[in-house]
């Protein structure tokens, strides 16, 4: 059992995210070598009221998401060079970039991270009623943690992706959403 009030007490890791230098090669690795897929591509992501280190930013990025059993695999592709969790000192490529936890109360998770001495790197809104933040709990680059409070339809969206991975036969490895 994690220590009460610790970052680990906020819940289990549900995602491993990577920031590959070569997005297409990473996609090929995950689908062909690892057999993970299909990936769902979401482009032109702009978080509402997005800030980076407390300052407004207009970062835009794409993600490709697939499931490996119960673990979500995310590949991140920046679409501009605005300040974000994938630029500057946090631009750790070709290795684990961040993990993600789904939380029921984003404000409580944020306070837990602050109380633990963590730094909020990026935060913003996801859709009409979802919220997200990326924090450096003290590990530094390569150790970011994403915390997300899913909005309406978020859990169902992830469930659809996970269901597609069950008995996936390798066909149609990248499916665009939107």
Describe the structure.
About 20% of the residues lie in helices and about 35% in strands. The protein is globular, with a radius of gyration of 16 Å. The model has no long low-confidence stretch (mean pLDDT about 95). Strands 4-3-8-9-10-7-1-6-5-2-11 form an eleven-stranded mixed β-sheet. By secondary structure, it is α+β, with helices and mostly antiparallel strands. A hairpin with a 2-residue loop joins strand 3 and strand 4 (about 55). The protein has helices at about 25-35, 105-115, 155-165; strands at about 15-20, 40-45, 50, 55, 60-70, 70-80, 95-100, 120-125, 130-135, 145-150, 175. It has a single domain (about 10-170), classed as 2,3-Dihydroxybiphenyl 1,2-Dioxygenase, domain 1, CATH 3.10.180.10. The chain has three helices and eleven strands; from the N terminus they run E-H-E-E-E-E-E-E-H-E-E-E-H-E. The longest helix has 12 residues, at about 155-165.
CATH topology assignment: 2,3-Dihydroxybiphenyl 1,2-Dioxygenase, domain 1
Q: How much strand content do the residues show?
A: 35-45%
Radius of gyration: 16 Å
Distance between the termini: 40 Å
| Arrangement of strands in the largest sheet | 4-3-8-9-10-7-1-6-5-2-11
Give the CATH level 1 class.
Answer: Alpha Beta
The largest β sheet comes out as:
11 strands, mixed
Fourth-tier CATH superfamily name: 2,3-Dihydroxybiphenyl 1,2-Dioxygenase, domain 1
Oligomer status: single chain
* CATH second-level architecture: Roll
Provide mean pLDDT, rounded: 96
Please, how many domains?
A: 1
Helix/strand order: EHEEEEEEHEEEHE
Discrete helix count:
3
Secondary-structure-derived class: alpha+beta
Proportion in helices: 10-25%
Q: List segments where confidence is low: pLDDT < 50 over at least 5 consecutive residues.
A: none
According to DSSP, the number of beta strands is 11
Organism: Croceicoccus ponticola
InterPro entries: Glyas_Bleomycin-R_OHBP_Dase (IPR029068), VOC_core (IPR037523)
Protein name: VOC family protein
